Amino acid sequence: AHVRARAAARARSTRATEEARTHSTHGGIYLLALTISMIGVTYASVPLYRMFCQASGFGGTTKRKTVEDKLMAQAALSEDAKAVAQAREVTISFNADVAEGMPWRFVPTQKSMKVRPGETTLAFFTAKNKSDMDITGVATYNVQPNKAGSHFNKVQCFCFEEQRLRAGEEVDMPVFFYLDPEFASDPALVDVNDIILSYTFFRSDDYDEIEAEVAKGSVAGVA
Asked: Where do the DSSP E strands lie in the chain?
């Protein structure tokens, strides 16, 4: 009886240890996910968070697709779905901002455009460096309402890539995009006829600081 009691106690101890490990593992995964989420909220261009948002359309972030992706999706679309998409008209409005401390003028070239789901559209934004020095910027983007983000696809754009403008330089930046044809038949989007595509440019301090240090080094070498 004493032996059986010891065996039972050992079994209970083993189960408790396994349960503790399971809870610890789940807790670690939760904390990791929470940490990634907080990092993403703090700075939207962190690669891991960006990839998650682009793949899921989370938080109004648009998806990045190729022309081949678009053609394959349209080829698999039924004629009824194509007809519904052609009958739906959506107004895309454009918004542009610059973060504090960014000496650029950044505006959409067009205020708005009317599009139909499935049709590719080309829009432009204009950026000008108003300072007397070269500045590098990085743009983040967002779609409102949030629920439309999963159907908004960008084939080509300037976001999340460093854009360097010389002092006083002005450039036009293209955005090539389309709405999924399924947008027109999605019950959750039946009340959405207006979408806002917004971009915000932030100064890429790391790049500018490195170049400034290189310039100082070159001057020191000459001296």
From this structure: 63-64, 90-98, 104-108, 112-115, 121-129, 135-144, 152-156, 163-165, 170-179, 194-203
- C-alpha 34: how far from its chain's center? 18
Residue 54 corresponds to which tokens in the numbers above? 């682009």
Phi first, then psi: what are they for 126, rounded to 5°?
Answer: -115, 130
pTM of the model: 0.62
Q: pLDDT digits over 20-77, tens only?
A: 444 444 444 444 444 433 333 333 333 444 444 444 444 444 555 555 665 566 666 7
Find the radius of gyration of the CA atoms of the chain: 25
Dist. CA 186–CA 195, nearest whole Å: 15
CA gap 69, 137 in Å, rounded? 29
> What pLDDT digit, counting tens, does each position of 128-187 carry?
999 999 999 999 999 999 999 989 998 888 887 899 999 999 999 999 999 999 999 999
Distance of CA 141 to the CA centre of its chain: 6
Q: What are phi and psi of 134, to 5 degrees?
A: -70, 135
DSSP code per residue over 51-72: HHHHHH-GGGPPEE--HHHHHH
The secondary element (H helix, E strand) that includes residue 202 is: strand 194-203
Phi and psi angles of residue 190, each rounded to the nearest 5 degrees, phi first: -65, -25
The position carrying tokens 């679309």 is: 77
Helix ranges (H only) for 129-182 are none
